[in-house]
Amino acid sequence: MKRRSLLQTTLASAALLPLFGSAAAWAQDKWPSKPISYIVPFPAGGTTDILGRLIGQKLGTALGTTIVIENKGGAGGSVGSEVAARAPADGYTLLGGTISSHAINVSLYPKLGYDPIKSFSPVVLIGSNPVVLIVKADSPYKTLQDVLNAAKAKPKTISSASAGNGTSQHMTLELLGFKSGTQFVHVPYKGSGPAIQDVIGGQVDMMFDTTVVAGPHIQSGKVRAIAVSSAKRLESLPNVPTIAESGVPGFEVVSWQGIFVPAGVPKPIVDRLHAEIMKILQTPEMQDRLKSLGMQPSSMTPDQVAAFQKAEVEKWAQVIKAAGIKLE
Known about the structure:
This protein is of the alpha/beta class. It has helices at about 1-30, 45-65, 80-85, 100-110, 145-155, 170-180, 190-200, 210-220, 265-280, 285-290, 300-325, and strands spanning about 35-40, 65-70, 95-100, 120-135, 160, 185-190, 205-210, 225-230, 255-260, 295.
């Protein structure tokens, strides 16, 4: 009797497998059936936030739902990234990942609450862009050499703001100090928005930031751009020299922005997100918008983004170790 009962149970379970498979497929077919959270691990006003809002509105329309932007700043993008890593893998949580949160922080923070590679699945790489060194409009520093000369004359007196420890702004500053033999005072904020306001107000001497954030303030005349971190001058800032041509040969730092989901999100959902977001990014309107912000748009597949990210993690681990960069 026991054997017969076991056989009947096994057969019944086998018969239900196709149904459960159909149920899972049905759930994915019906996705999304509610609003999707887009976590921005920085305060409003920064590059990740600006891009999230630009993409989120159009993505919501494409998916027939609402994309809700949630700003959860702190620790160079680590706080919001940890929240996203712990979210259900159901396709209802997106994360605006960056060079800091998904490549640099793992080598800086001894107890990071997530693994930048294992905890997420990449969806798209939005694009990459250099950072630009800016000072207040009436600052006495008109060139990078002015800054370096002042820093060498009085070490640890020139202050530089950033969006937080481990961000591309912070790392660019540390690399500049390392390669030029100078020392600065790093002033970390919880995001680019409040940081750049203090540069404009004169509370901080300077700041490295992406062209996405700094561009409008440069155009309005509130800040002066004195150098860019790219290998070549930018089309959007043709009169601003590179750091390399300003006295620090071989210097180059390029920041990047991507979109990730928690590891384990079904592949059909990841593929759908990738397809819809790429449609948005490849429209002439968005291509022009990204380029006007100083970004180089990307067309990588999720697998290519994964390989790129892995290389970035390894690259920055070597840079941080060689430069002896440590959090304050």
